[in-house]
């Protein structure tokens, strides 16, 4: 049954979809389609050839068996990887960098307790790691405070570590940020430092973690980035 888009044709236009895997209707009988591989929600208005794209982080899936159940889950800005352990991302002495372009990293993780801590550890001799747009979603609830560092400070984050030179801090510069006007720039040398946030979780529930990272001054003898959730 064709409900939206073009039958048999994959795409990202107003009339094509890529792996639609959920639909729902609002009170005005407008149709919403979860276009998951395009990371968007498509709205098809009632009795009109009008399509509206709704960005991002919203996936609605509806299953009807006598009654209707609606589940709402965040879609990250890039395809997520599943993680069962506390280590989401780890690299030591990379041999290449995408700078000045940021790389998106996204993960799904199942909570095991009533709280969790997301931590970013960096060391860089002598360049720096650049981090921006950190998100943790439980359903559509955002759990991270100041994930884009747009306060111009590390408010919401806990800082720890010891650096011979240059501690990590929020920097201003829209041309260097992944989005907005600020980003986190960490040039900690010799030892390393960490920023972290702790938030409440529900054991057994799935959480969607995403962030954007790039490496300025690659590739020197000692460059480390570790991202963990525990």
From TrEMBL:
Any matching Pfam family: NHL
Matches recorded under InterPro entries: 6-blade_b-propeller_TolB-like, Galactose-bd-like_sf, NHL_repeat
PROSITE patterns: NHL
Residue ranges of coiled coil: none
Keywords per UniProt: Repeat
NHL repeat boundaries on the chain: 4-47
This protein's record includes keyword NAD: no
Entry protein name: Uncharacterized protein
Source taxonomy: Eukaryota, Metazoa, Spiralia, Gnathifera, Rotifera
């Amino acid at each position: 049954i064709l409900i939206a888009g073009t039958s048999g044709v994959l795409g990202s236009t107003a009339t094509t979809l890529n792996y639609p895997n959920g639909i729902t209707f609002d009170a005005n009988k407008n149709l919403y389609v979860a276009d998951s591989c395009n990371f968007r929600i498509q709205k098809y208005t009632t009795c009109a050839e009008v399509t509206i794209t709704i960005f991002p982080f919203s996936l609605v899936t509806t299953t009807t068996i006598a009654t209707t159940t609606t589940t709402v889950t965040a879609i990250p800005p890039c395809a997520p990887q599943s993680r069962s352990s506390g280590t989401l991302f780890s690299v030591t002495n990379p041999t290449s960098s995408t700078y000045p372009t940021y790389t998106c990293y996204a993960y799904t993780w199942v909570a095991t307790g009533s709280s969790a801590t997301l931590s970013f550890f960096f060391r860089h001799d002598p360049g720096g790691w650049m981090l921006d747009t950190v998100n943790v979603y439980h359903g559509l609830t955002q759990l991270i405070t100041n994930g884009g560092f747009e306060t111009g400070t590390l408010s919401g984050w806990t800082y720890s570590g010891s650096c011979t030179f240059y501690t990590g801090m929020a920097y201003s510069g829209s041309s260097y940020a992944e989005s907005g006007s600020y980003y986190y720039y960490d040039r900690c040398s010799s030892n390393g430092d960490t920023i972290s946030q702790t938030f409440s979780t529900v054991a057994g529930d799935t959480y969607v973690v995403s962030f954007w990272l790039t490496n300025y001054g690659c590739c020197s003898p000692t460059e480390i980035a570790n991202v963990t959730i525990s």
